[in-house]
Write a structure and sequence with these properties.
Blueprint lengths: L1 E5 L8 H19 L2 H11 L3 H5 L10 H9 L7 H22 L1 H22 L11 H14 L4 E8 L2 E8 H22 L7 H18 L11 H4 L15
Antiparallel strand pairs: 1-2, 2-3
Length: 249
């Protein structure tokens, strides 16, 4: 399933979302400018290597700058075009509405904390790993978790390729994101059985998603009441009307 867009327009420009996307691409282009050796050093310096954290007490993770900085900078590094485009596309779809509800500053803090929750779980479950972990997917998973609870009956327009045919369907957000989360959880469990994640930090996705669900309560001023299943169908709206906010108006 490939998500294309959601049906809820945001009331204001998602400035923080734009900044995060731009910073990720700037960092990625810088990575591309490096030689293979330089890139390896850069990723190991600013990415998260779990084994570095298992060698010290937990409290030093957040007091030792050499360990603290990668917890943040790793969220802006990516390993290839598919990696960054997939992450930024998901952030583009789900981040604007979450930022709209939280406000710019709250959303920025929420995003970083979700990323910290994601990478912390990944470290705890991969203490001996010497493989650098990079990518915004943990923080974005937190955004997706918040979106699922804030806009459960929103619909995600999704492309489903079947052989040589392409089908476009609207899937309720709680169904799409719930299935996605279960897939990440199962994949994470499988990694324990086979001892390899294929380069994907599934537990970071799980950790970020769960962190986003719980953190949303702290960062949303007025929690919108979840609508009935048919509210999005019964309300007519003009997609060019930026004051429309679905059943939460």
């Amino acid at each position: 399933m490939i998500p294309l867009y959601d049906i809820i327009p945001s009331r204001r420009k998602p400035i923080v979302n734009y900044i995060i996307i731009v910073l990720c691409f700037i960092t990625f282009f810088y990575e591309l400018s490096l030689s293979p050796v330089e890139r390896e050093i850069f990723v190991r310096t600013y990415g998260v290597v779990p084994a570095n954290y298992s060698a010290v007490p937990f409290w030093e993770w957040f007091t030792n700058l050499s360990l603290l900085i990668p917890l943040i900078t790793s969220m802006f590094l990516h390993g290839g075009w598919a990696h960054i485009i997939g992450n930024m596309w998901s952030l583009w779809i789900f981040g604007d509405n979450v930022e709209d509800v939280m406000g710019h500053v709250r959303y920025a803090i929420f995003y970083l904390l979700s990323g910290l929750g994601a990478i912390t779980l990944h470290i705890l479950l991969n203490l001996d790993s010497t493989i650098p972990t990079i990518g915004a997917s943990g923080a974005i998973s937190g955004v997706m978790g918040a979106y699922m609870y804030l806009f459960p009956w929103s619909r995600i327009v999704t492309l489903i390729p079947v052989f040589f045919m392409a089908y476009f369907v609207e899937i309720p957000a709680y169904v799409y994101l719930g299935v996605w989360f279960i897939g990440q959880l199962i994949s994470g469990m499988v990694t324990f059985a086979i001892g390899s994640a294929g380069g994907i930090a599934f537990w970071a996705h799980v950790g970020g998603f769960v962190a986003g669900i719980f953190l949303r309560k702290l960062f949303v001023k007025d929690v919108p009441k979840p609508p009935r299943w048919n509210d999005y169908y019964s309300i007519e709206y003009d997609s060019t009307d930026r004051n429309y906010y679905g059943p939460f108006s």
